[in-house]
């Protein structure tokens, strides 16, 4: 069997040398060039079985070369490398027909494994037509964790696979969902976002599937649900862990059969939407507590994406700060710069509110302070009231339930800024506390409701009614 030939284009002599040695040891023939013109000539002459190229070349950008290569040799796999390492780099590489994208510096073993997969897979000769995209970058960061996310997103853009995004509050789950829509095959359709935690549980089914006139008291006319509004596009189900059991059952049926009925309706309606879900909760733990359907979890969790908290990607803070400063300037706020010592202070902060907390801090600094340069002392002054920047170095202390709830409510109101959360906050908060409390008691007593009622200090009938009303699944363990 003849050896495959790899065409390598990079103007960095050291990188060409390393790639030549590694690929030769892996059993490939290697041809090296430092410019796009030579690479194009080789490809046009039919040489090579795979291309590995940097994006920035001295004579031409590889993004301009890739479409020409795919027109003359659509089956030729192309792996692009880049030190730019932004979300748009990964997206453009995918849109222009690259098999994969590797951020520099890259792992040689990963590159060789990627080449092996590319050469072994059948290649389609049809090239997708992509519209020109807005150059605005929806996701910011060059850390290894974000690079992994960019690569996954780039591979998902031309699919309709269901995605579940896991991450703490403020990590940017809706931004990822919007990026999947705005740069994917459904970008010409609507993007509809629904926050499960913000809708009273008795209205969730009507909100999702719509209702017919007279379906319930107050239904004076037919109302389209979010599935109907998202037809042909993407439906983003945020805080999916807060969806009640009845709605979970109906959602599962939609995912299985591709159709639904409105509340009060009888005729099934076919649906064509891509589902992207998100949660800041541990769904597997909710399954163990009987609060989330396991079969729905597997339907939603086709492609899981975990967004790291900001404390795990502090190298991205300078990029995020620059992005938010530019954004503030565009919105008419004063132009600011930040000194390096101030960035160091930001990197040492724990960021319980994640990227949203950082964004709000930058807006506050640009709006309230006259100084053109943001100093470390100014950062410390702003962060001290909500927790000393060295807090991560203190020994951890047990937080009381009361303090935890107070902190959670403070963060919740901060997220809404000058606005207020949707009505029904009292009952939503009680439900969030009551459901895991009862679930934990049932788990500790192996589903024995008599012992759980005694543990909770409730009447047995009261506990049974709450289990029924809150739709808590009781799983009995071994006696």
UniProtKB/TrEMBL annotation:
<keyword id="KW-0067">ATP-binding</keyword>
<dbReference type="InterPro" id="IPR003593">
    <property type="entry name" value="AAA+_ATPase"/>
</dbReference>
<dbReference type="InterPro" id="IPR058031">
    <property type="entry name" value="AAA_lid_NorR"/>
</dbReference>
<dbReference type="Pfam" id="PF25601">
    <property type="entry name" value="AAA_lid_14"/>
</dbReference>
<dbReference type="GO" id="GO:0005524">
    <property type="term" value="F:ATP binding"/>
</dbReference>
<dbReference type="InterPro" id="IPR025944">
    <property type="entry name" value="Sigma_54_int_dom_CS"/>
</dbReference>
<keyword id="KW-0535">Nitrogen fixation</keyword>
<keyword id="KW-0902">Two-component regulatory system</keyword>
<dbReference type="GO" id="GO:0006355">
    <property type="term" value="P:regulation of DNA-templated transcription"/>
</dbReference>
<dbReference type="InterPro" id="IPR002197">
    <property type="entry name" value="HTH_Fis"/>
</dbReference>
<comment type="function">
    <text>Member of the two-component regulatory system NtrB/NtrC, which controls expression of the nitrogen-regulated (ntr) genes in response to nitrogen limitation. Phosphorylated NtrC binds directly to DNA and stimulates the formation of open promoter-sigma54-RNA polymerase complexes.</text>
</comment>
<dbReference type="InterPro" id="IPR025943">
    <property type="entry name" value="Sigma_54_int_dom_ATP-bd_2"/>
</dbReference>
<dbReference type="GO" id="GO:0006808">
    <property type="term" value="P:regulation of nitrogen utilization"/>
</dbReference>
<keyword id="KW-0597">Phosphoprotein</keyword>
<dbReference type="Pfam" id="PF00158">
    <property type="entry name" value="Sigma54_activat"/>
</dbReference>
<keyword id="KW-0238">DNA-binding</keyword>
<keyword id="KW-0963">Cytoplasm</keyword>
<keyword id="KW-0010">Activator</keyword>
<dbReference type="InterPro" id="IPR010114">
    <property type="entry name" value="Transcript_reg_NtrC"/>
</dbReference>
<dbReference type="InterPro" id="IPR002078">
    <property type="entry name" value="Sigma_54_int"/>
</dbReference>
<keyword id="KW-0804">Transcription</keyword>
<dbReference type="GO" id="GO:0000156">
    <property type="term" value="F:phosphorelay response regulator activity"/>
</dbReference>
<dbReference type="GO" id="GO:0043565">
    <property type="term" value="F:sequence-specific DNA binding"/>
</dbReference>
<dbReference type="Pfam" id="PF02954">
    <property type="entry name" value="HTH_8"/>
</dbReference>
<keyword id="KW-0678">Repressor</keyword>
<feature type="domain" description="Response regulatory">
    <location>
        <begin position="5"/>
        <end position="119"/>
    </location>
</feature>
<keyword id="KW-0805">Transcription regulation</keyword>
<protein>
    <recommendedName>
        <fullName>DNA-binding transcriptional regulator NtrC</fullName>
    </recommendedName>
</protein>
<dbReference type="InterPro" id="IPR027417">
    <property type="entry name" value="P-loop_NTPase"/>
</dbReference>
<keyword id="KW-0547">Nucleotide-binding</keyword>
<dbReference type="InterPro" id="IPR011006">
    <property type="entry name" value="CheY-like_superfamily"/>
</dbReference>
<feature type="domain" description="Sigma-54 factor interaction">
    <location>
        <begin position="139"/>
        <end position="367"/>
    </location>
</feature>
<dbReference type="GO" id="GO:0005737">
    <property type="term" value="C:cytoplasm"/>
</dbReference>
<dbReference type="InterPro" id="IPR001789">
    <property type="entry name" value="Sig_transdc_resp-reg_receiver"/>
</dbReference>
<feature type="modified residue" description="4-aspartylphosphate">
    <location>
        <position position="54"/>
    </location>
</feature>
<dbReference type="InterPro" id="IPR009057">
    <property type="entry name" value="Homeodomain-like_sf"/>
</dbReference>
<dbReference type="Pfam" id="PF00072">
    <property type="entry name" value="Response_reg"/>
</dbReference>
């Amino acid at each position: 069997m003849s050896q495959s030939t790899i065409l390598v284009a990079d103007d960095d002599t050291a990188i060409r040398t390393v790639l030549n040695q590694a690929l030769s040891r892996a059993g490939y023939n290697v041809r090296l060039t430092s410019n796009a013109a030579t690479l194009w000539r080789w490809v046009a002459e039919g040489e090579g079985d795979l291309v590995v190229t940097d994006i920035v070349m001295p004579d031409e950008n590889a993004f301009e070369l890739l479409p020409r290569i795919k027109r003359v040799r659509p089956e030729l796999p192309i792996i692009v490398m880049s030190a730019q390492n932004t979300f748009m780099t990964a997206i453009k590489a995918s849109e222009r027909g690259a098999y994969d994208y590797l951020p520099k510096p890259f792992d040689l073993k990963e590159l060789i494994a990627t080449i092996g997969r590319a050469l072994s897979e059948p290649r389609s000769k049809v090239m997708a037509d992509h519209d020109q995209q807005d150059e605005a970058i929806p996701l910011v960061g060059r850390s290894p964790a974000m690079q992994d996310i960019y690569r996954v997103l780039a591979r998902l853009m031309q699919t309709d696979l269901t995605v579940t995004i896991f991450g703490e509050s403020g990590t940017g789950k809706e931004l990822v969902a919007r990026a999947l829509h705005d740069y994917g095959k459904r970008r010409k359709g609507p993007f509809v976002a629904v926050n499960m935690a913000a809708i009273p549980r008795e209205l969730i089914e009507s909100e999702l599937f719509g209702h017919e006139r007279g379906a319930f008291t107050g239904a004076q006319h037919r109302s389209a649900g979010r599935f109907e509004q998202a037809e042909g596009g993407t439906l983003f189900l945020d805080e999916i862990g807060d969806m009640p059991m009845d709605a979970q059952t109906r959602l599962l049926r939609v995912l299985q059969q591709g159709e639904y009925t409105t509340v009060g309706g009888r005729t099934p309606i076919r649906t064509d939407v891509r589902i992207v879900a998100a949660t800041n909760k541990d769904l597997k733990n909710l399954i163990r507590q009987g609060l989330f359907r396991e079969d729905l979890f597997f339907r939603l969790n086709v492609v899981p994406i975990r967004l790291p908290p900001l404390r795990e990607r502090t190298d991205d803070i300078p990029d995020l700060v620059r992005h938010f400063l530019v954004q503030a300037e565009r919105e008419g706020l004063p132009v600011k710069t930040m000194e390096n010592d101030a960035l160091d202070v930001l990197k040492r902060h724990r960021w319980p509110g994640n990227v949203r907390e950082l964004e709000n801090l930058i807006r506050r600094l640009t709006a309230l302070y006259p100084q053109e340069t943001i100093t470390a002392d100014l950062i410390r002054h702003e962060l001290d009231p909500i927790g000393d920047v060295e807090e991560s170095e203190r020994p951890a202390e047990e937080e009381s339930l009361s303090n935890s709830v107070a902190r959670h409510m403070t963060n919740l109101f901060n997220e809404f800024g000058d606005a207020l959360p949707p009505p029904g906050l009292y009952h939503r908060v009680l439900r969030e506390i009551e459901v895991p409390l009862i679930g934990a008691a049932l788990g500790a007593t192996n589903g024995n409701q008599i012992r759980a009622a005694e543990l909770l200090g409730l009447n047995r009938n009261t506990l049974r009614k709450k289990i029924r009303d809150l739709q808590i699944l009781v799983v009995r363990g071994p006696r």
